[in-house]
Amino acid sequence: MANPKPVLVSTTEFEAHVFCETISGISEDYGVVHNVARLYRVRKDRYEVEWEAGDSEVVHIGVWVNPHNLKVVDYDGVFSLPSEIADFLLENGFDTSEVTE
Question: In 10 A of CB 81, how many CB atoms?
Answer without folding.
Answer: 19
